[in-house]
Write a structure and sequence with these properties.
Layout (H helix, E strand, L loop, with lengths): L3 E5 L5 H12 L3 E6 L10 E2 L11 H4 L1 H11 L3 E5 L1 H11 L4 E4 L3 H9 L1 H13 L2 E4 L2 H9 L7 E3 L19 E4 L9 H14 L4 E5 L5 H11 L5 E5 L3 H10 L2 E4 L8 H9 L2 E5 L2 H4 L3 E2 L2 E5 L4 H12 L2 H18 L2 H16 L6
Length: about 350
């Protein structure tokens, strides 16, 4: 059943863009409301920034304009992404049904560290008719932060398996990072670990995709620690290009200090890049150490390097791991299947039914 959906989210973020495009392709009338400018094809309603900078006040101050815009659209469901900003806006706007999607750091990091943000998260979550979380550890954090347990659903978004597929051949020794260049993703540990691997393996190299506020410092660190000509930063790339890089890579690296379900981990699993990732609850929902990948303690570059070398030295294990991970993604990490389940939840709410 096609719905009129008002999505409140950061239009500049790839997760928002994928979400909106998918729902529109499924026949829903989706209107995107955002303070950040996204691609032209998203045709967003741009909300005013009445306070400069990223401060928390700019979200509630934009609510009167949002309320007027929603009254014109008359959505059957409000769909807000990231609890402490657009989730708060959705709650303040007062329209129901309201679905709020948590993205990980909004509950796993900021709401735990900051009493003000924790209060904002509780305000939004208590008023949501549905709270979507992409991992069980995030769902537990949502319930702890005030979301009624019966309204919380743990559903990973999943991977577009038509795009993220294994390639014809891999580049021996190619290590790939696809995380954003922000502190939570701890790229210095990736670079330090890669430095040890490249020292021991003359054919190996490191490619770093993505971008962020720390990029300049990370490139300086790479120049100081890695052999010239054996590393590169390729910036933000389109999903098809990213899928191609992952299909070529032998190893996918992530040293994140916090995560729910990592989209980039699922993408690596889908294409067969061997995951070497930090030991976090969100990662353990998909792999174990030597079962689907390798885990290393957070911040431990030496353990990261050891895990990479052991993975490269065991081709039989690598083949089994790629087969296992492809099966896991097919079973519970398929974007089309999982988004269809979320659509069903939206339809139930729009029809005034209880969540099933």
């Amino acid at each position: 059943m096609p719905l009129r959906i008002a999505t409140l989210a950061n239009a500049a973020v790839i997760h928002t863009q994928r979400w909106v495009r998918h729902l529109r392709a499924r026949g829903h009338e989706v209107r995107l409301y955002s303070m950040e400018k996204g691609p032209a094809d998203l045709a967003q309603v741009e909300l005013p920034k009445l306070v400069p900078g990223p401060g928390a006040l700019r979200y509630p101050l934009a609510v009167p304009r949002l309320v007027r815009e929603l009254a014109r659209f008359e959505p059957q469901l409000v769909d807000a992404h990231y609890v402490a900003n657009y989730g708060v806006m959705g709650a303040l706007a007062g329209r129901h049904p309201l679905s709020i999607a948590a993205w990980g750091s909004d509950l796993l990091l900021t709401a735990r560290r900051d009493p003000w943000r924790r209060a904002r998260a509780r305000f939004a979550l208590e008023r949501a008719d549905l709270v979507l979380c992409d991992a069980e550890n995030l769902a537990a954090a949502a319930r702890s932060a005030g979301a009624p347990a019966e309204r919380v659903r743990a559903l990973p978004w999943g991977v577009d398996r038509s795009l993220f597929q294994p390639g014809p051949e891999r580049e021996p020794g190619l290590l790939l990072s696809t995380r954003m260049h922000e502190g939570v993703y701890d790229l210095p540990t990736v670079i330090e670990g890669a430095a040890r691997v490249l020292e021991m393996r003359p054919g190996a190299r490191l490619v770093v995709a993505g971008d962020g506020s720390q990029r300049r410092g990370l490139e300086a660190l790479a120049a100081a620690r890695l052999p010239a000509g054996r590393w590169s930063f390729i910036g933000r790339v389109e999903p098809a290009t990213l899928a191609g890089w992952l299909a070529r890579a032998e190893i996918y690296l992530s040293a994140s200090r916090s995560d729910s379900t990592s989209q980039s981990l699922l993408e690596a699993m889908a294409v067969g890049a061997l995951p070497v990732v930090s030991d976090l609850p969100g990662n353990r929902e998909w792999i174990g150490d030597r079962d689907g990948g390798r885990l290393f303690p957070v911040g431990d570059a030496v353990a990261l390097a050891r895990a990479v070398c052991e993975s490269l030295d065991d081709p039989a294990w690598a083949a089994r791991t790629r087969e296992r991970n492809a099966a896991v993604i097919a079973e519970r990490g398929d974007w089309q299947v999982n988004l269809a389940r979320i659509e069903q939840l939206f339809e139930q709410l729009a029809a005034g039914e209880s969540l099933r």
